[in-house]
Amino acid sequence: MAGNSLEVKKDSKFFEVIKRMVKEQPLGTAGAFITLIMLLVAIFANYLTPYGINHMTGFVLAPPSLKFLMGTDNLGRDIFSRVLYGARVSVIVGLLATLISVIISTFIGVTSGYIGGIFDLIVQRFVDAFMCLPGLVILMLLVSLIGAGLWQIIVVLGVTGGISGSRMMRSVVFTIRESTYLKAAIAIGASTPTIFRRHILPNILAPLIIVFSMSVPGTILAEAGLSFLGFGVPPPTPTWGAMLSGDARTYMFRAPWMAFFPGFALSILVYSVNMFGDSLRDILDPRLRGGIGRYGVKTKKIKTSE
């Protein structure tokens, strides 16, 4: 008599993703770690900075030293303190604006892709017309109309990004709509809210996470670009984009640290989030996942006897 004994181990998907990230994606792990550090710096900037946002130290254009780690600017303000405070704006705008963008793109993409027909045709022609417009010009125009400020920037970046990003969610929903399990749910009389809640939304969760993580860098760069052009968060709040313009360009050769450190911080944050988002895509995308049973549920044969 022969018998097989199998042990099925169900790991938490969250911890499974973390384990795979550490094991298979070292760059993504480093990117996630640096992003987490930046987030903590943004939250606790008040406790980490030696000086206030606009505190005049009395040392004008002082080079980097033990007293001023990143030097001072033309007004004697500590650049290290302003860079840490600038992280707060970049992280807040990057996360909240991207969250708004994902919500809007999900709503437009899911409704348009599921309903289809004339409704989808009208919505997508509106999206096409919007995407034909130059993005930076539209951002500058909208900010000029509603005024400059932190929340205004978040809303503008979130809405414009959501309209442009709805195309991807629409294509995902198109694929789900043609699946057998969704047609079976319709055949047995499942209501539309039930179909959305139990069949569509759970199956677009992984693409949503990927879109969110990969959209944050673009949002941060868009905010930095607006601040560089003078359409971002108004003074005296420091932002990395604003610190790269104005006085930094005037004193670029005399005091290069005024532009170097904000630009370096911006580059590190964008690169880290990009690496994290790219690694997360490789892990969550079923086509890149690898062998059967590698994710979520693992089946291991532990005993065979005759």
How are the strands ordered across the major sheet? 1-2
Uncertain stretches: 1-10, 290-306
Rg over alpha carbons = 24 Å
Superfamily (CATH H level) name? MetI-like
Number of helices: 13
Name of the top-level CATH class? Mainly Alpha
Mean pLDDT metric? 81
Terminal-residue CA separation: 6 Å
- Class per helix and strand makeup: mainly alpha
Q: Look up the CATH topology.
A: MetI-like fold
How many runs of DSSP E, i.e. beta strands? 2
Reading the helices and strands in chain order gives: EHHHHHHHHHHHHHE
Largest sheet: 2 strands, antiparallel
Percent helix: 55-70%
Domain unit count: 1
- Please tell me what the overall shape is: elongated
What do you see in this structure?
The protein is mainly alpha-helical and 306 residues long. The chain has a single domain (24-288), classed as MetI-like (MetI-like fold, Orthogonal Bundle). The protein contains 13 helices and two strands. It has helices at residues 13-24, 26-43, 45-48, 79-115, 117-132, 135-146, 150-177, 180-187, 192-200, 205-228, 240-244, 247-250, 257-284; strands at 3-10, 297-305. The chain has a two-stranded antiparallel sheet. α2 (26-43) packs across α4 (79-115), α2 packs across α13 and α4 (79-115) packs antiparallel against α5. It starts with a strand and ends with a strand. The model is unreliable at 1-10 and 290-306 (pLDDT under 50).
